[in-house]
C-alpha cells in the first residue's frame, strides 16, 4: 500500500513538473526580446521617464506591448519577491537579503542601472526663500522643531522617497506630527503650491516633465537648492550638479528583470540602457548612466554661404 501511494505521488509530481515546464516554454515561445506583451511595475516617483521609454519602444517595435503598473517602492519589491511580476523599475538596487530570497527560488535577477535621479525639495512660490539646508530636513525627520518648516509632504508612506529620507535621518519611523502623505507626486505638488511653509519631497522628473494638467501648478512652486551635510554651497537637482556629484539627494534608477528567459524584459532593459534609451534619459532632465555619443561632421573646407 505504501509503495502504491509513493508511486501515485511520483506520478503527480512528474505531471505537475511537466505542466509548469510546458507553461514556461509557452510563455517564452510567444515572446521575444522585441515582441509580445508584458506587465512592468514601476516606482511611482519615476513613472514619467519610464512612460517616455515605453512610448518610444512601442513606437519602434510595433509587436511589443508594455503595460506599466505604478506602485509604491514597497509594493514594487514585494511583487518581485512574490513573483507577481517579472520586471520592475526601482529607485534602488536589491538588498543582500532580497537576493538571497531570489536565490532560494532559483531566480537570478538581472539588474541594469540606467539613470541617476534626484529627489527634489519644493515649496510654494509665496515663500521667497529658495534655499534649504539638508540638516534642517533631517532634524525635522528626527522630530526636532524647525521654524522654517511647517511640514514635510510625501507621496506615499511606503514610497522610495520616504525610505530614502528615513535612511538619511537614521530613523525607523517618521514623526507623528508634521509629516503628510498623499497618493501621487502630483497631489504633493498641488498641496505644496497652496500651502506656505510646506516642503514637498518628489522625484524631479515630475517637475521637468509635468503632465498638461499640472503645467500651471508647477509655476506656483519653487524647486529649492540644497546645502549638503558636508558642504557650504547650495546645489540644485539639475543634470549639471548631478554629473558633478554635488547634489546631495541623488539616487540611481534600475530595471530588474526576473523573467529567466530571453523575453521582452531583456529587450526593454537593453533598450533603456542603450543609445536611444540613454538619449531619452538625457532629454528628460535626469542624468544618463552612460552619456550618449555625439557625432561631429568635420568639413575639409569652409563653405561661404553668403556668396
TrEMBL record:
InterPro entries in alphabetical order: PBP_domain, Phosphate_ABC_transporter
Instruction: Give start and end of each PBP domain.
Output: 36-274
The scientific name of the source species is Flavobacterium procerum
Work out whether the entry's keyword set contains Signal: yes
Keyword vocabulary terms for this entry: Signal
Q: What is this protein called?
A: PstS family phosphate ABC transporter substrate-binding protein
Amino acid at each position: 500500500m505504501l509503495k502504491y501511494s509513493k508511486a501515485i505521488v511520483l506520478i503527480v509530481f512528474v505531471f505537475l513538473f511537466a505542466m509548469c515546464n510546458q507553461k514556461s516554454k509557452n510563455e517564452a515561445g510567444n515572446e521575444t526580446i522585441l515582441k509580445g506583451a508584458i506587465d512592468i511595475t514601476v516606482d511611482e516617483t519615476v513613472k514619467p521617464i519610464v512612460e517616455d521609454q515605453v512610448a518610444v519602444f512601442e513606437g519602434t517595435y510595433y509587436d511589443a506591448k508594455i503595460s506599466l503598473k505604478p506602485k509604491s517602492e514597497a509594493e514594487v519589491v514585494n511583487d518581485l519577491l512574490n513573483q507577481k511580476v517579472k520586471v520592475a523599475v526601482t529607485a534602488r538596487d536589491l538588498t543582500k537579503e532580497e537576493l538571497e530570497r531570489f536565490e532560494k527560488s532559483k531566480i537570478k535577477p538581472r539588474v541594469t542601472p540606467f539613470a541617476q535621479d534626484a529627489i527634489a525639495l519644493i515649496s510654494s512660490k509665496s515663500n521667497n526663500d529658495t534655499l534649504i539646508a539638508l540638516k534642517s530636513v533631517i532634524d525635522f525627520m528626527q522630530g526636532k522643531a524647525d521654524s522654517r518648516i511647517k511640514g514635510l509632504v510625501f507621496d506615499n508612506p511606503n514610497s522610495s522617497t520616504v525610505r530614502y529620507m528615513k535612511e538619511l535621518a537614521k530613523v525607523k519611523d517618521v514623526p507623528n506630527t508634521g509629516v503628510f502623505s498623499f497618493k501621487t507626486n502630483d497631489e504633493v505638488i498641488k498641496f505644496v503650491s497652496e500651502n506656505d511653509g510646506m516642503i514637498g519631497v518628489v522625484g524631479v522628473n515630475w517637475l521637468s516633465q509635468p503632465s498638461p494638467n499640472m503645467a500651471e501648478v508647477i509655476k506656483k512652486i519653487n524647486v529649492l537648492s540644497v546645502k549638503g551635510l558636508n558642504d557650504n554651497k547650495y546645489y540644485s537637482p539639475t543634470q549639471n550638479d548631478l554629473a558633478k556629484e554635488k547634489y546631495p539627494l541623488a539616487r540611481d534608477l534600475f530595471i530588474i528583470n526576473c523573467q529567466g528567459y530571453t523575453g521582452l524584459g531583456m529587450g526593454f532593459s537593453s533598450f533603456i540602457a542603450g543609445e536611444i534609451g540613454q538619449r531619452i534619459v538625457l532629454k528628460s532632465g535626469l542624468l544618463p548612466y552612460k552619456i550618449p555619443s555625439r557625432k561631429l561632421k568635420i568639413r575639409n573646407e569652409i563653405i561661404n554661404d553668403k556668396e
